[in-house]
What we know:
Blueprint: H1 3-23, H2 25-28, H3 30-51, E1 53-54, E2 57-58, H4 59-90, H5 93-98, H6 103-129, H7 140-164, H8 170-184, H9 197-203, H10 207-220, H11 227-251
Helix pairs in contact: 1-6, 3-4, 3-6, 4-6, 4-7, 4-8, 4-10, 6-7, 7-10, 7-11, 10-11
Amino acid sequence: MRTQALATAFNTIVTREIRRFTRIWAQTLLPPAVTMTLYFIIFGNLIGSRIGQMGGFDYMAFIVPGLIMMAVITNSYANVVSSFFSMKFQRSIEELLVSPVPNWVILAGYVCGGMARGLGIGLIVTLLSLAFTSLTIHSLPMMVVTVFLTSALFSLGGFINAMLATKFDDISIVPTFVLTPLTYLGGVFYSIDMLPEFWQSVSMANPILYMVNGFRFGILGVSDVNPFVSLGMILVFISLLAFIALKMLARGKGIRH
């Protein structure tokens, strides 16, 4: 296919994905905004006033980067897994399979669609946080690169989950039993310096810890891990998941019978 045709196919997928989640904004955009506002009120104002400072910052300011990343992670993942599995369930995925669109264009289109929702929610949560605390950006490049790469990573994860899923229950297993625990234990609400040495070592095996701390470094300038190590870890995971997703597409895993 020519470059223009590839661009048209890519833009079509991305545009459809964006229209999909904006059309049902009351289900996709509003709930995360309400949930994060409750987090700000309960953990930031009520509990944070008793905790005081963490990492040299007010507790509210400390948790804001983590809450933004939590919103980006869950929504990037949810958008792709729900959209692609719905196409499988409705058998409209066959239209893509018989078209001359390369697998990498299909994957890139869905990933960018997931990123659009994840980053959009991240922006909404960031604007909401300004009503509760003031944010000063320590390193804009680190902040932007970390949030974009993290959104891409979990969009890829959602794509793989959707390909493996055989029923609607399967697309809720990973968010419920994997993403949620890892996110809560990924340093969103605390610094791992507070943990005993053994549990600090255990926490280092949590990939979300690197993403949260990389983003926190970009905003506040503090991190429990080296921010460049964080970026390296994210890039490794993106490469791995992209390779797996393309292999699965090539074999028709879960989409060809």
